[in-house]
Amino acid sequence: MQPSSPQFDPIKYKNTTHDQWQSAAEAWYRWSPTLHHWLGPSTEMMLDMAGITNGHRVLDIAAGAGEQSIAAAKRAGTNGYVLATDISANILAFARQLAMQSGIHNMETRVMDGENLTLDDNSFDAVISRVGLIYFPDQQKALKEMLRVLKPGGRLAAVVYSTPEKNTFFSVPIGIIRERAKLPPPLPGQPGPFSLGADGVIKKVFEQAGFINVKAVYVDAPLLMPSTDAYLQFAQESFGALHQMMSGLSADEKIAVWETIRQELLQFETAKGFAGPCELVVASGEKG
Questions:
Q1: Nearest-CA neighbor of 225 among 213, 236, 216?
Q2: In which domain, by residue range, is 22 found?
Q3: Which 8-state DSSP code applies to residue 117?
Q4: 45 and 72 Cβ atoms separated by less than 8 Å
C-alpha cells in the first residue's frame, strides 16, 4: 500500500503565519519608510482601481502596519472611514501608532481573519489588500467574504507579486533556504508569495469568486536599498517566513545560509546601491 502524500494543513499554516507577524510587527513598522518608497506607486494604483474617494467606507484586509490604510484614509477624507484588519494584534497596534503620528482620525483597527469577516453585508464602498491575499489558505473564501461586505458597485483592489522569475529579490533567498534546509516543494493548494502571480491567474480567481469587470495591471517595482547588506537586514528583520523555513537548521547553518544569500544578492548591487528586481500585479474587480 502506497503511503499517502503530505497534505497542506491550512490551520497549522494560519497559526504559523499569525505567529510570524506577531514577531515581525515592530520591524514592519520600523521599515515603513522603505515600504512606502518601494510599494508607494502600486499602492496609489490600487487605491485608484478601488475607486476610493471622499466619504467612502474602506476595508483593508491583512493591513499589516497600516501604511496603505493611512493612504486610503487620506483619500476617504474626514467624512470617510477606514477599517484596517489583520490576524496579528501586535502589528495593528503599530498601525494605530502610525495613524496617530500621521494625524489620521478616520481609521480604526480590528483583529479579524480575512476568511471570516465579522462585518455586515453591503457595508463598504471599497476593499483593499496589499500583498496579503497571497497568504490566505482559502483565497476563494476570503474573496467571497470581501464580495459579501462590498456594496453593489463597490470595488476590490489588491496588490500581489507576479512570478518568481520577476521577483528575484525574494525568490533567490527562498530558493537557497529551500535547498539548504532540504524542504519539499510547496504542496498543491498551498498559498505563498507567488500563488497569484502567473499570467491570468488573479483575474480567474476574482471572477471565480463572483467579481465582474476584473482588471490586472503589471507594475515594475524594484526594491531599492543603499546596499545589499541593508536589504539583507530588512529581509532578516521583516520576512518572518524565511526564518520559519530555516527553523530546522542549526545556528551555524543559518549563518552560512544568510552568507550564501548575501553572495547571490550581490548581483543586484549597482553603483547607486541595491536594486532588487520586483514585479507586482495590481488587480481589481467590481460587485455587480
A1: 236
A2: 10-163+189-222+279-286
A3: -
A4: no
* pLDDT tier at 14, thresholds 50, 70, 90: confident
Cα angle for residues 117, 121, 125 (degrees, 5° grid): 95
Q: What sign for the dihedral angle of Cα 230, 233, 237, 239?
A: positive
Q: Among residues 264, 141, 147, 136, which one has the least CA distance to residue 195?
A: 136
**What does the pLDDT look like over 239-264, one tens digit per residue?**
888 888 898 999 999 999 999 999 99
In a domain, 244, yes or no: no
Q: 83-96: per-residue pLDDT in tens?
A: 999 999 999 999 99
C-alpha Rg value of the chain to the nearest Å: 19
CATH number at residue 74: 3.40.50.150
Picking from 44, 38, 31, the residue whose alpha carbon sits closest to that of residue 222 is 38
At residue 275, the 3 state secondary structure works out as strand
Query: Rounded distance, CA 286 to CA 281, Å?
Result: 17
Residue at 184 is within a domain = no
Percent of the chain with pLDDT over 90: 83
When divided into structural domains, the chain yields a total of 1
Domain-located, residue 168: no
* 199 in any annotated domain: yes
The separation between CA 207 and the C-alpha centre of its own chain, rounded to angstroms, equals 20
- What pTM was computed for the model? 0.94
Describe the strand order of the beta sheet including 81-86 as a list of residue ranges: 107-111, 81-86, 57-60, 124-130, 150-161, 279-286, 212-220
